[in-house]
Structure formats: C-alpha cells, structure tokens
Design brief:
binds adenosine-5'-diphosphate; 7 helices; about 260 residues; binds magnesium ion
Length: about 260
C-alpha cells in the first residue's frame, strides 16, 4: 500500500517495525509498529529510556537502516536509502583527523557535483563563520576542543542545505557550559531562520533541554518501543526555566517516561 503523505509532512514513519539480527539467529525487536510525523519547520525533541531505540530511530529516518516492515516517507515519497537532503550529527563528531577543518566541512558537499572547489570552500566558510570557527579553517581536528569539533560536525551537516537535521545527543559529551552555549547558539540560529534547514529532530536525555528548545517532544517507551506520548510545548520563546509552566512540561514528560 503506498499512500502519499500530506504536503505539510516533511518525514513520516508509518507502522515501522525494526529488529537487529543477533547471533544464533535471535532478533532484538526495537520497534513494533511505530508511527510518527515531523512537519515542515518543526523542532522535534525525542526522549526515551536508554536502549529504547532513539539512535536506531534516527538511523531509520536518515535512510541508513531499513525497517523490517512499514514505510518512511520523505517529502511525500518513500525513502529508500540515505538522502543528501537529510543530515545527521552524532554524539561523537566523526571528523577525518588527516583533513583540516575546512576540508572536513567540504565533505558535506561531496554529492554536489555542480560546485567547483572554490564554491565549496566558500560555502564551507559561511558555515564555519556561523558556527564561530573562523580562524580555524586550517586547523586539524586534534587541535580543537570537543565543543569545537562538534561545531565542525554541525557545519558539515548544514553545508549541504539539507531539509532535515537529525541530532543524536549532540551535546551530551561536552562539558556543561560548552553544551549550553552551543545549544543556545543553535536555538537562536534556528529561531532567526538563519539555518538552511526546515526541521530538526533532536534526541536528548536532558528533559529540560528538550522543553527549552522543542516545539513538540515525543516520548518513547522501553523496547519494543512505542510512542508513550507527544507533548506540544506551548511556551513563548526564549523560554525561562524559572517559570512554573516550564516545570509542568518537564513533569509531564517524566511522567510519560516512568
Ligand atoms: N548494531 C546493533 N546490533 C545489535 N543490537 C543493537 C545494535 N545497535 C543497537 N542495538 C541494540 O538495540 C537497542 C536500541 O539501541 P539504540 O537505538 O542505540 O538505543 P538508544 O539510542 O535509545 O539508547 C539496544 O538494546 C541496543 O543494545
Ligand atoms: Mg543512542
């Protein structure tokens, strides 16, 4: 059964089941008939217990993993593999150590056959600037702090102007201050519509972070994972963690998690 999704849906997971093949032919069932939608211009947060399948979900959304059954629709069409219009940022930035910062960012343009090296370099520089890395173009990853390496990874994810940015706990290996700074910057770039993307899906175990930044938070259950609930965050931005409403949302999500 193929069904076109409505135009306002950027990516749609319909009745997805997924299992990992284990040794001895066993299967680890991660999803059993899960469905969810990400609309255009939406910031979605994803929370769920450790091991429930959050990273697996992002890999399915990115086309890196194929579900056992069900369909993924991206911009109304079935997604059958990785798509240059979908970018991913991982917990640990996966940079090539023997490439300079700017060359690492230019790797995000590897599919753009129409661009000259010079144009790629200019595009990369724009995003290095956005991420506060001007002056580090010719540095090597090993010369950078963890926070700066993650900035490079984000620049590389954005340089291709994807429609969808998937972020898998991108701040959780950074020290707290670095994490807060980077998240705030990203949020303000998002709110000011400077980022060349339509929608973001952010996986985090930091519930306050998700309430601060997301339009909606999707809470997953333990495996086999289902949607325990979707919480729409109706708070004005920028959001203050000091308000009572803020903590009512946080409590709501913790309740769904427990
Ligand atoms: N490549 C793999 N092969 C087998 N099992 C895996 C693989 N990757 C993850 N798993 C298992 O699948 C489940 C979901 O993993 P994951 O998506 O990483 O969860 P989360 O990101 O929510 O912590 C976990 O039990 C994990 O051990
Ligand atoms: Mg994970």
């Amino acid at each position: 059964m193929t069904m076109e999704k409505p135009a306002e849906t950027l990516i749609s997971l319909r009745n997805i089941s997924f299992s990992y093949k284990m040794r001895k032919g066993d299967r680890l069932q991660v999803f059993d008939n899960i469905s969810l939608d990400v609309l255009y211009a939406e910031f979605i947060g994803i929370a769920g217990p450790s091991g429930c399948g959050k990273s697996t979900l992002l890999r399915i959304m990115s086309g890196l993993l194929k579900p056992d059954s069900g369909e993924v629709y991206f911009r109304g069409r079935p997604l059958n593999g990785p798509d240059p219009r979908i970018s991913m940022v991982f917990q640990n930035p996966t940079l090539l150590p023997w490439y300079t910062v700017i060359k690492n960012v230019m790797l995000g343009l590897i599919n753009e056959k129409g661009l000259s090296e010079k144009e790629k370099e200019e595009r990369a520089r724009t995003f290095l600037d956005m991420m506060g890395l001007i002056g580090f173009e010719n540095a090597y990853p090993a010369e950078l702090s963890g926070g700066m390496r993650q900035r490079v990874a984000i620049a590389r994810a954005l340089v291709s102007h994807p429609d969808l940015l998937l972020m898998d706990e991108p701040f959780s290996n950074l020290d707290q201050l670095t994490a807060i700074t980077l998240r705030r910057e990203l949020e303000s770039l998002w709110l000011n519509q400077v980022l060349p993307i339509s929608s973001i899906v952010l996986v985090s175990h930091d519930i306050e972070e998700l309430v601060e930044i997301s339009d909606k938070v999707i809470v997953l259950t333990a495996r086999p994972s289902r949607v325990a609930g979707t919480v729409k965050i109706d708070l004005k931005r920028p959001r203050s963690r000091r308000s009572q409403e803020f903590y009512e949302y946080v409590d709501k999500i913790y309740t769904l998690l427990s």
